[in-house]
Amino acid sequence: MTRGGEHGWTDGVTLVSFAAAAVLLAAFVYLQARTTDPMMPLRLFKDRTRSGSYATMLFIGAGMFATFYFLTLYMQLILGYSPVRTGFAYLPFSFGMAMAAGISSKLVTHLAPRLIAGPGLLIAAVGMLWFATLEPDSSYTAHLMPAMFVTALGLGMSFVPMTLGAVSGVSHQDTGVASALLNTAQQIGGALGLAILSTISTSAADGKLPEAAGSLYRGLATKDFALVAKAGDAVTHGYTMAFVAAAAMFVAGLLVTGFAINAGRQQHTEGAAPVHMG
User: Which residues lie below 8 Å from residue 38, measured CB to CB, with a gap of 6+?
Assistant: First the structure.
């Protein structure tokens, strides 16, 4: 996935890797279905809510990890932030995530999970569209900070219901692997999302200025501020297109939540394992 985003989806190594992955995955499922003590019990996927939670987390990971990547590039390359300043700039995201997680932890005892995660993903998509309006000279306090907080609120609202959906109703011996599969879905989604969104961002930027990223680096190295301004505008455009795609991924997760996650409040809260925020 990562190579596809860097070298193209028709790259020979990329295609061979996908073919090998498909064969290995099929072999893994075949073996898991026939062993008496499987590492990944396929019975976990028979529950509609649990499978829906995994699929939703795939989309959440795809949008979230790519967002961190492009925001970091934007703040350091376009706004000129240092790595330390960039780290501090993410604090509103942490605050929003913690606040939303606390609220959703209380709401799961009163509402069905899709009624919490669904609005949360919609809020996160709004935050992504807010990021999609960034310009090379956008303000941190008026633009970046509130968009981060809104996105974090939405994601924080979705994490708790998805975690509970993944582990509710499982037998004691399956609780660990059920939770691990949720984390795996998030990590795979992150790799896939970064590869796809990087391709979208690069294509959009190069559409405005050929080899936009390379031109930006050359301009920064040679202090050619005219080139920096021109390339920065093109690269920022590429980032905004990636944010639009990330918003679409959150909407896709919202649709999965609405159609697949049908557990009620009582079913979802009984026997739930501790929540892991990933």
Answer: 31, 32
